[in-house]
Every structure is written in structure tokens, then in C-alpha cells.
Amino acid sequence: MNSPWPLLITLVYVAIAMLIGLRARAGRSMNSLEEWGVAGRSMGPVTLYLLIAAGSVSAYTFMGAPGWAYSKGIAVFYVAIYLAYLALVAWYFGPKVWQFGEQFGHVTQASAISDRYQSPALGALAALVMAIGSIAYAVLQTIGSAYILFVMSGGLIPIWLGVVLVLACIAVYLYASGQRAIGRTNAFQGVLMLIVAWAVGLWAVHSATGGLSFAGVFERVQAEHSEFLTLPGAGGDMSFSFWTTSIIVSMFSFMPPVWTQWMSASSARTIRRSATWLPTYYVVILPMVVVGFIGIFTLPELSRADTVVLEYAMQHLPVVLVGLLGAGTLAASMSSSEPFIHSVSLSFSKDVLQPVLKLSDAVTGKLARLLILPIMFLVIAPLAIAEPGSLVMILLVGLGFASQVLPAFIGMFFWPRASRLGVMAGIVVGFLITTALTTLWPHPMGIHAGFWGLMLNLPIFIAISLMTPATNAEVVERFFRIAAPRGLTRIGQ
Amino acid sequence: MRRLIVLPTSRAGWGLLIAFVALVMAGTWPVIGLVNRATLVLGLPLMVVWSYLVIFACVVVMLIGNRIVERDDHE
């Protein structure tokens, strides 16, 4: 590809994102956790809708999902379904989390856990282990960003330089404007991704079939490769059990950045309104997946399935659209990595360093902003440049662990008797099982490792909770006035 | 305290809980097995059409939920 347009368009996108991110501060001081961490709890329904939507639609939508369609087929739609279920989760839990934050001053997920169980150790443990999955996720997105710059520049920007450039851009506006920058840039990126996905998808369909209907593509797949249209898919590895347990495990993985996004809303009602319409955004996945299906016929010898859209675009689409695709994919990567970097920095400062070093809130607020720099340049950048083969494994274990924190939330929203030791025991056992069944004996019987972890985690959590002292009644009452405003129900009597 | 849990306290609340569970069941096994056929509906694979039906049904259920929550005035 010799045209300078794709790189120029991609760089213009980066410049606009930086400008929006820097202006998001609007003269406010960002040294408090309330401002830098949760945007002063000020976000309206449209910003929140695009913040959550763009944050959940990562480079996976532009690269991974079409790659899955290309190599496995229809199995890729489990992602669209679980994303819609995450909206149900946000609708129910989001307003309650917002009220916890507003009334008790929480700015992170771990501080809510620490408060509910009166255990800074449990909060710190949750923050540290959640950080594993969060950092792995941010590294994967950064690799995706650098790869886009490499392709759009025709190889002029090597991966290491792409990593440094992307992280430097994010660092500038994230340091300056915190969660407000994430909100504004995600809003811009969310709109851009929707437009680019449909423009590229429809153009690709037109170039492949001569029309704008997806029917021509799927009729050919049905006639020649019908195994792509059903489970277990063309690879034969997406069984009903893996589909189902992957959805359930993903649904119950309350990742910390999502929690922070809920706490950034201007009201509980705002979260409910945003969550209600959130599933509509996931129409963004359909056109990209269709390009993956087109690739089955047009690019049968592709060595890397996740490059199917980029390869097809470079061979068949006008350069302007290739540039927009680069910008859209970069937007997807950046909008997903920013919240994870921000959340790790926020939680590490608030939930680990503050209690250990006995720091004041003012010092912790300044520290959270500064901490993004070592996290980005001493942890994420070297990992992204090295591209360790085990990274996907670390991510899978990290996300599997995220679902193992479920007992902490059961005790926060449903069961007042849950105890600190019960939660700890459940988490530790669930984590060990998930780690073993991801690395040593991957997903036995086609069931997701995180699901196996939960099946042992939950009974142990209940048993140990019943055998150990409950949290102070006053604290429990404070939480359940919000979690159950109409009172609790007695079971079994 | 050991036997106390949070459950819906009204018929509308129970209705919403049942709708949420039904939505989750609609997108997972065994229901997903019923639409696992290589047929096209309106030019799209049946699994895609079903997935988006479930996705938009989520919006409808949450819209109904909003009306219930705002009518009952419990935030």
C-alpha cells in the first residue's frame, strides 16, 4: 500500500482524540480522586451510553470477531449476546453501585469491597488480582493499536514505536483529564466506530456481491460451507456448553473499569437509562462479522485470521475507507485500553498504597494521576513490545478470576450473612481451580474454566460464611438499605 | 440474619426477575440448540436473527423495568 492517505487519516483521528481528551478537563483541578477518578459523578446518559459501549467494543470487534467468523463462523455471536446481558447487569447493579459511591464515598470497586467486609486486606487483594486481567487486557489492546499504525504506515512505524506513540497520546490526556477524558474520547470513538463499521461492511458487501444486502454473502456460505452457520462452528470447538458457560462467566465478571463507569454517572437513573439502550450499540458487530464471512471465499489462504478485514480492505476498498478503518480500529483499541489503565492506577493508589502507606486523600489523588506513567511505560509498553506468547493465557486467567470475585458481590447485593473469610475462601479456591483448568487441563468437558471455578467457589463461600462471624451489623444494614430498600425476605421458615 | 436474602417484593418485581431469567435462557443452551440450523431468515443466518432478537428483547424488558421502577419510585 503506497498511498499516504490511510496513515494521514489515522493520525488525524489520533490528533482529534487528543484534543478532545485535553479539552475535557475544562479548567478543573484533577488532583482529587472524585474528579480524576469518577469525573465528579457528572456524566449524562448519552456520554455514559457511549462510554460503556465504546469501552466494551474493543479491537476484538474490528479484528478478532471477523477473524472468528472467518475461522469458526457463527459462534462469534456469543459475544454480542453476552454484551447485551452485561447491559442487564448494569441496569440492575449500576444504580446501586452509584448510590454506594455517592453515599459512602467509594471511587473504586475494591474500596466498596473493603468497606462492605470491613477488610482493607480483602480490598487490596481484589485490587491486585483484578489488575492482572486489566493489565493483560490493556497490553493486548496496545498491541492491536501498534499493529494498526504499522499497517497504515506501510511498515514505516515499527511495532515498538507504535506502542510508545499510542501510550504517549493516551498518557497526555489521561493525566490531564482523567475519567472526563475517557468519557469524551469514548463518546467520539463510539460514534466513529459505528460509522466506520457500517461503511466498511456495506462497501465490502457491495464489492463482493454487487449489492448492499448481506443475503448474497450468506446464501453462498450456506451453499458451500454450511458448517459456518451452526455450532460447534467450522473449527468444531464451540460446543453448546462452551457457548453457554462463556456467556455466564462473562456476565458475572464485574470488571473494575465498568464499576468506575457506573460511579461516574450523574444519577442512578442515568445509569438505568443508558443501560436500557446499550444493547442497540452492538449492531456495530454485524457488518464487521460479515466481512469475515466474505473473507472465507476471497482470502482462503490467510495466515492470520484476525487480519481478514484489514487485508480485504487493502485489496478491495478505496484508500480513504482503509484510512477510516485504521482510525476506527485504533479508536476501538484505545477506547478499551484507557479505562483499564485508569482503573488499575486508581485502584492501586486508593486500595493498596493508601492503606499501606497511610496516605491522605489529597496525596492519593495526585499519586493516582502520576501512577499511570510507570504503569504504561514500565509495565504495559515492555509487555506489548515483547508480545509474550502467554499473554492471552494471562488474560484468560485474569478474566476467569474476575468472575471468582462473585461472592463479594453476592454479599453486597443479596446475602447479608456473607462473611469476609467466606468471600476470601471462595475467591482463593475459585482462582486456583480457574488457573489450573485454564493452563493444565483447559476447559474440561467443553465447559469454561471460570464456570468450574464458580461451581466450587460458591458452595465454599456459603459454607465458610455460615461458620465464621458476619460483618458488623451496622455496616451490613448501611449497605442493604440501598441493595434492598424494601427489606429482606426470610427463606426456609 | 443467615436466612435473610434479597428477593423481589412485588408481583411486578417477580415478573421482571422472570423476564431477566427468560432472556438469559433464550441466549443459552438448551434454547440456542433449537435455532442451531443452517437456514436463512431475511437473508441472515437463523442464529444471527435469534441473537439480535434476544439483544433487542433485552432493551424492551429494560424499558418495561424503567416504567415499573419509576412508577414505584424506588431508586
TrEMBL record, chain A:
Transmembrane region(s): 6-25, 46-69, 75-94, 121-140, 146-175, 187-205, 240-259, 280-300, 312-332, 367-385, 391-414, 421-441, 447-468
Recorded catalytic activity of this chain's protein: L-proline(in) + Na(+)(in) = L-proline(out) + Na(+)(out)
Protein's GO biological process: sodium ion transport
First-listed, main subcellular location of the protein, grouped into a coarse class: membrane
Localization terms from the record: Cell membrane
GO terms, molecular function: symporter activity
Classification via InterPro entries: Na/Glc_symporter_sf, Na/solute_symporter, Sodium:Solute_Symporter
The UniProt record lists the keyword Membrane: yes
Membrane topology: Multi-pass membrane protein
Pfam families reported in the protein's UniProt record: SSF
A GO term from the CC aspect: plasma membrane
Entry keyword set: Cell membrane, Ion transport, Membrane, Sodium, Sodium transport, Symport, Transmembrane, Transmembrane helix, Transport
Entry superkingdom: Bacteria
Family designation: Belongs to the sodium:solute symporter (SSF) (TC 2.A.21) family.
Protein name from the UniProt record: Sodium:solute symporter family protein
UniProtKB/TrEMBL annotation, chain B:
Keywords: Membrane, Transmembrane, Transmembrane helix
Transmembrane segments: 12-32, 38-64
Tree of life domain: Bacteria
Keyword check for Transmembrane helix: yes
Protein name: DUF3311 domain-containing protein
Organism the protein comes from: Vreelandella maris
Taxonomic lineage from the root: Bacteria, Pseudomonadati, Pseudomonadota, Gammaproteobacteria, Oceanospirillales
